[in-house]
From TrEMBL:
Protein name (Swiss-Prot/TrEMBL): Rhamnogalacturonan acetylesterase
Protein's organism: Aspergillus saccharolyticus JOP 1030-1
Family statement drawn from the similarity comment of this UniProt entry: Belongs to the 'GDSL' lipolytic enzyme family.
Keywords: Hydrolase, Signal
UniProt-listed Pfam families: Lipase_GDSL
PANTHER family in UniProt: PUTATIVE (AFU_ORTHOLOGUE AFUA_2G17250)-RELATED, RHAMNOGALACTURONAN ACETYLESTERASE
Signal peptide: 1-17
GO MF annotations in UniProt: hydrolase activity, acting on ester bonds
Length: 250
């Protein structure tokens, strides 16, 4: 006669075992870019059944985030099934002739530049190359990567709505395509919602400059990200606690 095996106890993985890592600049960082401003990463947790780790740091570009080992730090802790959202662009422009340590090599492919920064002759990559390189690190760990386009500067700054995506928006899309990871045009969704909200409301979000928003602005920017996720069908859909966000799909 067979003895019935004692069923072992299993701990069912909770959805909160999923972690979303956020890699970006001040527009995403907790406490944003200065007094009275918040980054949108601060408002992500309320929409997801996942742990949110906001690793965005003010002043960073795709290049400086790479050089400082910040993508590597995330890669060390990310596990299969986690998400990494990468959003840069605000600090990636400028000229290498007066190198601030953030400017990328111009171009969209495998071009390299050399620049002596901080006493080191640094090999500088293009913006898409940094994002592709980072994406590879994470997908190798089984993580889901979403490259997100940068937020717009205040498109109502002049009193008339005007949104022109920077070149880094197109570069972000290209990087996602080349790396074979998800892409959301966050910038376009923020702009669309801002257009609806109008001049007075949107200008009230920008009290210190045209890049960093108030907490109320950051909440709208976070909602726009999830609207883009829902409309794009990005993998992050799986951990959303709601799919109802204001605005229309673009
Ligand atoms: C690629 O990314 C890794 C991790 O961020 C970094 O250590 C490495 O330097 C990057 N490669 C280049 C050429 O920048
Ligand atoms: C930096 O390294 C590159 C590639 O080896 C080289 O061509 C360039 O001359 C170096 N620049 C300086 C200032 O040493
Ligand atoms: C837009 O909003 C700003 C700030 O509230 C205000 O000063 C300006 O007069 C408004 N412009 C228009 C065209 O309504």
């Amino acid at each position: 006669m067979k003895t019935a095996a004692v069923a072992p106890f299993f701990f069912l993985p909770s959805t909160l075992a999923t972690t979303i890592y956020l890699a970006g600049d001040s527009t995403m960082a907790n406490l944003g870019g200065g007094s009275g401003t918040n980054g949108w990463g601060q408002y992500v947790a309320q929409y997801v059944s996942a742990t949110v780790v906001n690793d965005a740091v003010a002043g960073r570009s795709a290049r400086s985030y790479t050089r400082e080992g910040r993508f590597e730090n995330i890669a060390e802790v990310v596990t299969s099934g986690d998400y990494v959202v990468i959003e840069f662009g605000h600090n990636d422009g400028g000229s290498l002739s007066t190198d601030n340590g953030r400017t990328d090599c111009s171009g969209t492919g495998a071009e390299v530049c050399y620049s002596v920064y901080d006493g080191v002759n640094e090999t500088v990559l293009t913006f898409p190359a940094y994002l592709e390189n980072a994406s590879k690190l994470f997908t190798a760990k089984g993580a889901n990567v979403i490259i997100s386009s940068q937020t717009p500067d205040n498109p109502w700054e002049t009193g008339t709505f005007s949104y022109t995506p920077t070149r880094f928006v197109g570069y972000a899309e290209l990087a996602a395509e080349v790396a074979g990871v998800g892409y959301v045009d966050h910038g376009a969704y923020v702009a669309a919602i801002y257009e609806t909200l109008g001049n007075a409301t949107v200008n009230s979000f920008y009290q210190i400059d045209h890049t960093h928003t108030s907490p109320a602005g950051a909440e709208v920017v976070a909602e726009a990200f999830f609207k883009a996720v829902v409309c794009t069908g990005a993998s992050l859909n799986n951990v959303l606690t709601t799919t109802s966000f204001e605005g229309t799909c673009l």
